[in-house]
Amino acid sequence: xxxxxxxxxxxxxxxxxxxxxxxxxxxxxxxxxxxxxxxxxxxxxxxxxxxxxxxxxxxxxxxxxxxxxxxxxxxxxxxxxxxxxxxxxxxxxxxxxxxxxxxxxxxxxxxxxxxxxxxxxxxxxxxxxxxxxxxxxxxxxxxxxxxxxxxxxxxxxxxxxxxxxxxxxxxxxxxxxxxxxxxxxxxxxxxxxxxxxxxxxxxxxxxxxxxxxxxxxxxxxxxxxxxxxxxxxxxxxxxxxxxxxxxxxxxxxxxxxxxxxxxxxxxxxxxxxxxxxxxxxxxxxxxxxxxxxxxxxxxxxxxxxxxxxxxxxxxxxxxxxxxxxxxxxxxxxxxxxxxxxxxxxxxxxxxxxxxxxxxxxxxxxxxxxxxxxxxxxxxxxxxxxxxxxxxxxxxxxxxxxxxxxxxxxxxxxxxxxxxxxxxxxxxxxxxxxxxxxxxxxxxxxxxxxxxxxxxxxxxxxxxxxxxxxxxxxxxxxxxxxxxxxxxxxxxxxxxxxxxxxxxxxxxxxxxxxxxxxxxxxxxxxxxxxxxxxxxxxxxxxxxxxxxxxxxxxxxxxxxxxxxxxxxxxxxxxxxxxxxxxxxxxxxxxxxxxxxxxxxxxxxxxxxxxxxxxxxxxxxxxxxxxxxxxxxxxxx
Length: 635
Fold this sequence. Notes:
The protein has 635 residues and is of the alpha/beta class. Helices cover 19% and strands 11% of the residues. The protein has 13 helices and 23 strands. It has helices at residues 107-110, 113-130, 145-149, 213-216, 220-235, 238-245, 255-264, 271-281, 291-303, 392-395, 437-443, 445-461, 591-594, and strands at 3-5, 26-28, 49-51, 72-74, 95-97, 132-134, 155-157, 177-179, 200-202, 310-313, 332-336, 357-359, 379-381, 402-404, 425-427, 463-465, 485-487, 508-510, 532-534, 555-557, 578-580, 601-603, 624-626. The strands form four sheets. The chain has an eight-stranded parallel sheet. Strand 6, helix 3 (145-149) and strand 7 (155-157) form a beta-alpha-beta unit. Helix 11 (437-443) crosses helix 12 (445-461). The radius of gyration is 36 Å and the shape is flat. Mean pLDDT is 84; it is low at 325-330.
C-alpha cells in the first residue's frame, strides 16, 4: 500500500500497527476526530505527504521526526500548541501548514514557512539538550512564549531581532547569559532583578535609556543589583526611598546624598527644577531634608512630572492579609497583590486615592472586596480566585474599563453588567457559566453585555423576552422582581423556574413549548397578580391544588399536555374566561370546570371524553364550547 486516504470520517485514533505500512507515500486523514497519533508512524520512512488538518490533535508524536522523506505536512485547524522540536530533521519538508492552531511560535517565524519554523525548532531542540538557546536574526518582535515555558535555559541569545520589550524573562531564573544586542529595547524591566544567576548581559546596539549608560557598562550581577535597588526604591514607599537616599543613616539627607540618589533614579538632568522644589521642601532652612520634608519633596516631583506615579508590587509573597503600612500610598497608581493567600482586602482603603489598577489574581478571594470599588479604579484583575457572585455595586463603577474574572466559580452575572457601557475588556473564561451566556461570551463580551442588558431593561419596562433561546434553566442573571410579562416559550425547560417565586408583579407568563412534566405549585401563591398563563405543549400530567390562588387569572392554556384530572381548587378561579384543555387525557368533564360560572370559552378537543355533564347548564357565561375529536356518543 502506497496511498491511503481516510478523510471525512470519525476516526478518533489510529492503531499502532499503522506503522507497519512502511511503503506508504501518502496518508490523508483530513476532517476526522483524531486526538492523538501513535509513535509507530515514525517507521514510515518513505512517507512524503501527510494531511492531518481539521482534527483534534494537541500534539504530534515524536516518532514523526524520523519520517525523513516527508515533503508536505498539514496540521492546520487542530489544537497543537507546539511542534516536535526534532521536526527540523525532516530536511525535505517544503510545505508545512499550521494555521488555526494555538501555536506558541511567533507569527514572524510562521510567516517564513518551513525554513523559518524548522530553524526555530532546531534552536529549541539544541536548547532542550544543552540549555543554550540561540534565536538570533529571526525577526522576532517579542520574547517567544515557548521560551518562558522551558525550565532548563541557561544561555539565551535574542540578538539581531526587533524586540522592544523583555516581558516574562524574569521566569528564566537559571539564565547565566542573556544577549539582546541590536534590538529595539529602550528599558530593562525591573522584573529582571529575579535573574540572580546572570553573569553576562549584552545590550549593545539597543537604544536603551533606562538604566543609564553608566550602569549598562557594569557586569551582569551589578546590573541585576541595580534593578533590584531601583525596584525597592521606586516600588515601595516614601520611607524606604528616604532610607535609600540617606546613605550615612543619619536620619536626614544632605545635598550630596540627594544628588547621588537623583543620579541613581536617573533624574540628575532635572537638577535645577529639583533645586527649586527642594527650597520649598526645606521648611527649617538647615539644608538637610528630614523624612517629613522628603515626603513633600517627592510630592513636588510628582506634581512637576519629574517622577512617574508608583507601582507597588507585592505579588508572590504568600501574604495572608494586606496591610497599608507605608507613608504616602496616595502616590501608588498600580497595586499588584497577585499570587498571595488573600481572602479579602481591608474594607476601606481611602489612602489609595490614586489607584487605577488593582491586581488580585491567584488568591483565595470568595467575594469581591468592597475596597475594589475605588472610584479611581479603571482595571481590576481577579482571575484564579473563588468568586461565586459578582456584586451589583461593582457594576455601578462606570469608570471601570477592564475586568478580569477568569477561572472563578461564577455561574452567572448580574444584569447590571449590561449597563457597564465603558467596560471594553471583560474576561470570564474558565467559569461554570450557564447557557446562553457561556455561548455568547465566545462570540465576544459585547454580545454578553447586550444579552444582560435584556434583563436590565426588563427591570425598567417589565418585559422579559427569552423566547426561543434553547434554555434548559432560567439563567441566574434573570431577576424577575419587577417583571410583569415573562416569555419563556420554545425552550428546553424541564421544571418550572424557581425564580418565578420572586415575580410578585407578574401578569403574563408564557412557558409553552418546553419539556416540563409538572409546574411547581409552591410558585402559585407568589404570582397572584397573573392574568394570562400559557403552559401548552409540555408534558404536564396534573396541576397543583394551589392553582386556586390565581384569583385574577383570565386566560389559561393547558393544551397539548398529559393531564388526566384537574384539582377541585380550579373552581376558585372566578375571573377565568378562557380555558384551553385540548390534547390531554381527560375522560370526563371535571366538575371544577363546570363550576367556572364566568368562563366564556372552553376548548377541550382531542381528549377521551365519553360524554358531557349536565352541569354544563351552570356555565351561564359560556359562549364558545369545542369538544371535537373525543369519544362522545351522545350530547
